[in-house]
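Team,

Forwarding the record for the chain on the shared tracking sheet. I've put the sequence and predicted structure together so nobody has to dig through attachments.
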Amino acid sequence: MQELDQIKKAFDTFISQAETFVEKQKVKEEYKRWRGKEGEEYFCIDDNGDIYDDNDFNNKEDNFRYNTGNYFQTEKEAEQYRDRLLATTKVNDRIDELNEDWKPDWNTYEQCKYLIVYSI
């Protein structure tokens, strides 16, 4: 009887975890990046790195900004994105400087390669 209770408990745990997984997948599928309604204000970054507001009229410029990720609901989001772009560029420049002309050869195991893995 004890063994049957353990099996039932393990099965219940499995079902619970499966339901949680399915719910998370639904949330992932439902996510859509914010886009303002027609005429609604949004923020973007100009060529000088300044943040300015514009209104969405679903024209070529608005669509390009949205499709390239330069389209934000708040000024603060735009500032954070600009700062992240600048920081990423500094890091990539430093990587290029340190790597000099080295390029990984992905076709051989003889050359060591490293990667960073992050799990949540």
